[in-house]
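A sample copied in:

***
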Amino acid sequence: MIKQYLYGYPLLNEWDGTATTINESSIMSPCIGAGSKNSENNTFNGVLMGKIKKIGEKESKHGLYGFNKGEEVFGFTEDGTAFIGKSSGGRILFNGDKSEIKSASYDPTTNEDGNEIPGTGILLDLDDPIFDLKLNNKSLIKFNPNSSDPNSSEMYLQTEVYDEENNIGTKFDLINGYLRMNGSKPIEGGTEPYTISISSNPKDTPILIEGDTYNYEEWVEDEEGNEVVETKTARK
């Protein structure tokens, strides 16, 4: 049985898939390139399109790739992903399956010695939507409404050094509704640490921590059984 027009495009049905074919209206080839070669340092400036295989690599790849001094500077691949920028720095990755744009350095990697290189960069998901600005594997600005599971939503801004247990740094949490600031103030003979905590929860009242003790307000019942606010002092 002979099948015709399998590919939906006449020029694809006429092409055998291996040879370079030129006719009046089209050119079909496994790979097409345009640009210039530098014989002094064996580099290429230009573009390659189609099936591309680099010396030393086992697998071929398909797409449109741009080169500057022999280094890939952009690529649009057959699976809907793409990148712009050099691998040495500044590269942006695009994922057509997720409507996702991110820095190539966003995900942590491992160097030749097996040591982890922390992820630093930005992730932008246009579908979910998600925005995440990360430095050394720590999210500094994160917005993830997560409409499918509101309980796991995240929206906050924090400093890189933020550590809630040790009262270091600042965090502003929009989902849980609180602001926590840690710092130090000058006193005679040095400095004294302090923490300011403000919450939108009426029963999670403001806290000011200074030195080794802090004052806080707590909802308690009075003798008549009414809820009232009582100021207390505690040690850190």
The chain has one helix and 21 strands. Residues 160-236 form one domain.
